[in-house]
Amino acid sequence: MSTYPAPHLDPARPVDERIDDLLGRMSVEDKAGQLSQYFYLAGFGEPPADLDIDSLPPEHQAYLRQPKMVEDAIAAGHAGSVLFVTKADMANRLQKLAVETAPLGIPLLFGFDVIHGLRTIFPLPIALAASWDEGTISASQAVAAREARAVGIHWTFAPMVDIARDARWGRIIEGAGEDPHLGAAVAAAQVRGFQGDLGSENVLAGPKHFVGYGAARGGRDYDDVEVSDSELHNVYLPPFRAAIEAGAQNVMSAYMDFNGVPASGNARLLTDLLRDDLGFDGFVVSDANAVKSMETQHFAASPTEAAVRAITSGLDMEMCTFDPAFSRLPDAVARGLVSEDVLDTAVRRILAVKFALGLFEHPYVDAGASDAILSTEHHRELARVAAERTIVLLKNDGTLPLAASTAGSIAVIGQLAESKRDTLGPWVFAHATDETVSILEGITARADGEVRFAPGAGIPSREFASMFDRSDPTVVNTPADHDDDAEIDRAVAIAADADVAVVVVGERQNQIGENASRSTLDLPGRQLEQLQRIAATGTPVVLVVMSGRPLDLRWADENVPAILQAWYPGSRGGDAVADVVFGDVSPAGRLPFTWPRHVGHVPMVYSHLRTFQPEDQDKRYWDEESTPLYPFGHGLSYGSFTYDQLRTDRDQVARGDTATVSVQVTNTSDRAADEVVQLYIHQRHGTSSRPVQELKGFRRLAFAPEETKTVTFTLGPDELRYWSAVTGGWVQDATVFDIWIGGSSQATLMTELIVV
């Protein structure tokens, strides 16, 4: 006889039995509660004890009373999940309400945006993608998961796997860039890192935003999306498919209208594609307030209709700040607007992950152990290595690497060079800037000679403030009394007196990310003018770019001897930049997007179709060549590599079979270095036109001096098929494929494969 008071509490029973028992004990109100996730705004700080809340405007009162509202919902058993809790003691306090006060004692799921680290901050996801190294990506997110779980977080709203082909879109920084093959590999690596085997140091991964969010009109966040079926299947869905195949237990739906239907109430997306086509069997959560937003979008007539349309389309959980639309579901069931069976299906999915995480047996976190885990020095060292592997050497005439012992005096110029907060980048909320190594600190610690610093040109603030700045006391802005003229003059003078100038330019961390789209790719403020004046002094310049999107570097590319893309490199970013500048590490990051010359060229992708007059592809604009400043996959090295003996193991292959492609790669230099070997294909003819090039394989490999390696890839139906608008499905044609292997999308070593 079981010693447990109810079957659902017996861990020896099959999960399905436990869920059946618990469902049988739940009212419709309890079920609707499990489908509701609340922000918990107490995480932003407590109001003063003597504050007269009643005297405030109603909207301010609502925010201050929101934490009590959430606690009441938890205690009543009408909350399934809470987000924005980052302290172990707070998580335990709320969990106690759910487990020991609520009638059924169902534990909460705690979610949070752990995008590229919690306390230890790794490079941005777009930067991790630039490593082209799935091992580094998985290891980075495994650390993020370990730290998150240590404070009671069970679930991260990551990875973002949206393909981004418009650099104006702020959320380009959360994804893997423009390419579906690279995006799929990065998505799977992140899921594996976060989730592992769903043990005590893992968190649920939540790929987002399903689907097409990165295709917003004009790169404007939240704007609507129109995507063809061909683009949907060939470009935007592959990273989601890879994340699901890697085991992702959650998917987040998008805010925006997708082909005229809000994504969170779109049955074609959430049921037909996500579940029937991609085989997803986990639970789907909305983005913040996206269900009630369907009323704002003039799609639903009321919150009740929004709730019904969302849940019947396949949405399982509503993320909300205040009054959830899903609280209307009991009334909707009573009125016959939705079947209770539909609620049961959604509740089953959510209970399944709570059982899988062991929350019924171990609902609380060990608050006494969290500080030690968050302070783990090994995590910081992994962040340093990850940052080193993401840095992209865009240009080098031999100026880099500097020799620390002979470089002489170094001028470090730029406000971003000393800003610890900007070094971390956006989308961090539980960070510690006092643990961050700035670029200035990294170079100063590594250099043997004198290092002098000047902040130089100011970086203007946003025209419209960031919604995240209110909750981040570490945000850095240019001081109001900053004298641009005087500071630029001082920076130029310091650079003129130095043997080399390291000039750090870019955008502040709050100028990119969610709600941070831009109408231009120019360097903000007078950074370009300052760079031009420093270059005119004759002092050799190393330009370090801190950004998450391509910026207009046309002048720099023509006039500056060395350019590094450092991204926002994280907690140990300054050390990593110094390691590359002084040659302790040979850079091997590669661009995960095409770098346009300026904003008038976006969107620009390497995998475009040939279309009409392909010989004039570089002359599409009459005033400037329509080619990238730096191509997709580009990145230089301190080593040098040659490619030869490209061959396939057969001249032709039957449809459905697989060919092996091999190439010899040699490090012809006298130093150890990594190379990213990239394989591209082009289908010459078939059912549909195909892009001029498509990435279908890559390997990041370490080479000893003068070492040669044979690198092999396979090309089979997974790589050679595509979704055709002609047939409305997947096809593999009998055709001829061109195959290139090299160090970027501009590889020239080519062979061919015939498919019969």
Provide a brief overview of the structure.
It contains 24 helices and 26 strands.
Account of the protein in words:
The protein is built from 24 helices and 26 strands. It has 756 residues and is α/β, with parallel strands linked by helices. The strands form 7 sheets. The chain has a 6-stranded parallel beta sheet. Strands 11-16-15-14-12-13 form a 6-stranded mixed beta sheet, sandwiched between helices. Strands 18-26-25-20-21 form a 5-stranded mixed beta sheet. Strand 23 and strand 24 form a beta hairpin. It starts with 14 loop residues before the first helix and ends with a strand. The model has no long low-confidence stretch (mean pLDDT 96).
Average pLDDT works out at 96
Give the number of helices: 24
Shape annotation: globular
The total count of strands amounts to 26
Structural class: alpha/beta
The side-by-side strand order for the widest beta sheet comes to 5-4-3-2-1-10
Q: How much strand content do the residues show?
A: 15-25%
